[in-house]
């Protein structure tokens, strides 16, 4: 989460916005470049408890745009929509922006269940999408659905590769994975699930794993750790 906050610093955003616009939007608008404003649409949740809430992201985008304008860059307009972190309402706002012709570049979404459908639509709309989210390894495959998606925060699959190197270093072979996930399936899966999912894939989908909901007071951690240690044979297990 700290890295997500850093990636939306004004200085980094200025560079990212400039590069994205110059390579994608400008090539699609070969005529009247100096007259047509570039429209940046920020898609983020309005929940102020989240580290990537709208009120934290939009000011950085505005500052980046103002910086580029002072440097003689092309005029840009910024608008935003509250995705509510909803896989229903988030994509609807993206449809609204596209159908109204209000966006040349999408910044966000930042919630994975909003990002997935919007990123698939963007490749059909020829609308570039730039996000600090999307670490799930599903987004590693650019074709055919995510070809216009640019992720600034890397991928969880890189964590899987790091795990393999650690195991090789210490000659560990038997691994068990223990991670937090929500019992309430309407919430979706947790970041822990997606993170260790890439590790599970890197390990050949053979490792023992067990999930638990850390928000529930009824979890028996002692029994759970005993079960995991037996399946890892005391060698190595990952807690996330």
UniProtKB/TrEMBL annotation:
GO MF annotation: an example: peptide hormone binding
Gene Ontology CC: one annotated term: membrane
Signal peptide: none
Localization per record: Membrane
Lineage: superkingdom: Eukaryota
Gene Ontology terms: biological process: signal transduction
Keywords, alphabetical: Membrane, Receptor, Transmembrane, Transmembrane helix
Pfam families xrefs: ANF_receptor
InterPro entries attached to this UniProt entry: ANF_lig-bd_rcpt, ANP_Clearance_Receptor, Peripla_BP_I
Domain Receptor ligand binding region, first and last residues per copy: 59-228
Coiled coil: none
Protein name: Atrial natriuretic peptide receptor 3
Taxonomic path: Eukaryota, Metazoa, Ecdysozoa, Arthropoda, Chelicerata
Gene of this entry: NPR3
